[in-house]
Amino acid sequence: MKRILSLFVFILCLIPAIAQKDLNIAIYFSEPYKELTGSSVFIEGGDLTTYNLSLFRSITITPEGTPETSRKLLEKRVIKDGQLAIKKEVAMIGTQLYYGFYVLPPIGKKQRYIFYRNNLLKPEAKPQEIMLVYIEGKASPTELKQIFK
Questions:
Q1: Strand, helix or coil at 47?
Q2: What is the pLDDT of residues 116-131, one digit of tens each?
Q3: Half-sphere exposure (Cβ direction) of 71: Cα atoms closer than 13 Å
């Protein structure tokens, strides 16, 4: 019985990784990505249920110590995943992605979202960073925008 329970818990832990496995950005959340300097956040369950969310993953990248080629590759992967979106809001500065909010096809009853913002493209913006967020849950796009205002 103990083995079955342990196997069940292990499988449950794999579900979030499987859900985003089909995305190009998944590489940034699977392990610490050595080419990017910044911080990451991983929250699953718990207090997120208050907001109708089940998974929240984010990375915040600072320009110091992060090569420009790595930042451009991140942007390229976000844009590629954005092509899968069933709904999106995008803002470009020149030829670069400044802001992206993507509603991905759901998996089962879980909605999936990607949020991206590159403040490095606006020198007056504070803080000077790039933020990438992957979210799953039952929250609607409107609810998410209210949460992250």
A1: helix
A2: 999 999 999 899 999 9
A3: 22
